[in-house]
Amino acid sequence: MMALRLLPDRRASASNFFRPGPACYAPGMRVIRQIVLHHTATAATATLDDIRRMHVARGFRDVGYHYLLRRDHLGLVEQLHGRPVEQAGAHAKGHNAYSIGVSMVGNYDNNPLPGTMLDAAASLLAYLCDAHDLPASAVVGHRELAATACPGRYVDMDLVRERVAELLEKP
Predict the structure, then answer these.
(1) Per-residue pLDDT of the chain in tens (171 residues, 90 and over written 9)
(2) For a FRET experiment, which of 15, 127, 159, 166 has its CA 20 to 30 Å from that of 118?
């Protein structure tokens, strides 16, 4: 397996990378039952600000996803933070109250999913499953909840869940 070098965004540090933060686990936080995987259906070069503008133009108050994964110009994957996890997202109608939205920047209906993106997504999804005491089966593609191709025809959700399950089994 290829070693990954994941780059946090400006707000992340080595100590909180792939960590939702202490506020996410405060008493009374909403109960998470699913983690929904998306793609942005944009150019792979889209920035967090680009996606924020698109979502605000659609009537959302901010980015609808909680986490975004984006490949930089070197092909390395960086984690971007959208909406705080303690707030319901705007990413899967009818499921936002009890889910976390993770989106991969790019259009994986038109383009094959790079291995580094699959590895990064599996890593983040496994972390979130572990943090919220969820099995890998709690990870769903947006298309499994709604009439959409999202997260794209090149994203094999069975493979994603298999990779997440493997990561959850490791000590």
Answers:
(1) 333 344 444 333 333 334 443 334 445 578 999 999 999 999 999 999 999 999 999 999 999 999 999 998 888 999 999 999 989 999 999 999 999 999 999 999 999 999 999 999 999 999 999 999 999 999 999 999 999 999 999 999 999 999 999 999 975
(2) 15
The CB density around residue 14, as the number of other CB atoms within 10 Å, is 6
Looking at residue 163, its amino acid is R
One DSSP character per residue, 22-40 reads: GGGGSTTPPPP-EEEEEE-
Give 10's contacts (C-beta < 8 A, 6+ positions apart). none
Angle subtended at Cα 30 by Cα 35 and Cα 121, rounded to the nearest 5 degrees: 20
13 by Cβ neighbours in 10 Å (0-12 / 13-18 / 19+) ranks as exposed
- Distance between CA atoms of 54 and 105, rounded to whole angstroms? 13
Distance CA 44, CA 104 (A): 9
Q: What is the DSSP string of 35-86?
A: EEEEE--S-TT--HHHHHHHHHHTT-SS-S-SEEEEE-TTS-EEEEE-S-TT
In single-letter form, the type of residue at position 83 comes to R
Omega of the bond leading into 151 within 30 degrees of 0 (cis): yes
User: pTM for the full model?
Assistant: 0.84
